[in-house]
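Severity: low
Component: inverse-folding endpoint
Summary: output formatting inconsistent between runs
Steps to reproduce: submit the following structure tokens with default settings.
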């Protein structure tokens, strides 16, 4: 098993189950020194370094199949190592910033994102 930090859409049960093809029960985790941004036009947020910020997420003990599914979901982006609060190491599949929407970046919030994108992301992940 490989420790993977999940953030953004993957902190929500339905999109996570669609991506992984199964229900999971990951533990709460925090990635210090980062923020989660999006433009509102983006289906997925991206991680950005940010001094005093921290991203709340989940820690999944991922199988090899989970890793393959996460890589596809991340558009083929390779995972990068991160250090979570408490010193635990994990991998994070960071979305490429280059393909983001044209609007101004803003903090990602599930309540803003879900009404617009949750069904789309879950549906696309299930295909």
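Observed output (run 2 of 3):
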């Amino acid at each position: 098993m490989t420790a993977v930090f999940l953030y953004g859409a993957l902190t929500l049960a339905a999109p996570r189950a669609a991506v992984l093809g199964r229900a999971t029960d990951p533990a709460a985790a925090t990635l210090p020194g980062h923020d989660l941004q999006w433009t509102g036009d983006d289906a997925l947020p991206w991680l950005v370094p940010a001094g005093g910020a921290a991203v709340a997420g989940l820690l999944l003990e991922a199988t090899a199949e989970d890793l393959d599914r996460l890589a596809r979901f991340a558009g083929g982006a390779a995972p990068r190592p991160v250090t979570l609060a408490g010193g635990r190491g994990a991998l994070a599949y960071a979305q490429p910033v280059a393909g983001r929407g044209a609007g101004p970046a803003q903090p990602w919030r599930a309540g803003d994102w879900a009404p617009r994108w949750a069904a789309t992301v879950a549906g696309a992940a299930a295909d």
